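Async update (no meeting this week)

Hi team, since we skipped the sync, here's where things stand on the single-chain job. The sequence we agreed to prioritize is pasted below, unchanged from the tracker. I ran it this morning and attached the output directly underneath so nobody has to dig for it. Comments welcome in thread, and please keep replies under the output.
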Amino acid sequence: MGCVAEGTRDEPTERSADAVEAGTLLVAAPALTDPNFARSVVFVIDHRPEGTLGVVLNRPSEVAVDDVLPAWGPYTSRPNAIFVGGPVEQKTALCLAALRTGQDPGRTDGVVGVRGPVALVDLDGDPGSLAPRVRGLRVFAGYSGWDRGQLDGEIARGDWYVVPALPDDVLAPARHDLWGGVLRRQGVPLALLATHVSEPSRN
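Output:
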């Protein structure tokens, strides 16, 4: 895993824990084989010294939003499926939205801004009143969480790359190779990892 240069604290790189903040992505390194996170892309919702919380963006389930949260089903982006946000509290639902241009998360009822137009949605709110203000919504079951220092250790070990997120990442279609797409747009050397296939014997 030594193909990417280590960063310094003054100049955070894709291998530096200093680069993690709300609204960034954690992209699983090819060698990360944990079934919960292999080839995953995690959107960081909250990051502070006490720990980090995010959701996996590329794990659609077979469960339709309509079956669990029928009021929100008509407003969610395709596929109309609940995504598996991570292994923690999988009976808890979280929702992310990408607001339309000109909408301020700080002045929009029912949401809490994460970064830029991406916001966390209050699922107890009224989806009908929020829908005109957003470009898309995605519902997640469970989340990914790290205690104090845990994520720092995983990044130092080479399990994750820390890269910027685009608002449309949270709405990526299920069949889109988000993992490969995010890596490719980083340029060399990370872009080269996008060709890494999932079976080690084929590399």
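Quick observations from my side:
The beta strands are 24-28, 41-48, 51-56, 60-64, 81-84, 88-99, 111-115, 118-121, 134-147, 160-164.
The chain has four helices and ten strands.
Reply here if anything looks off.
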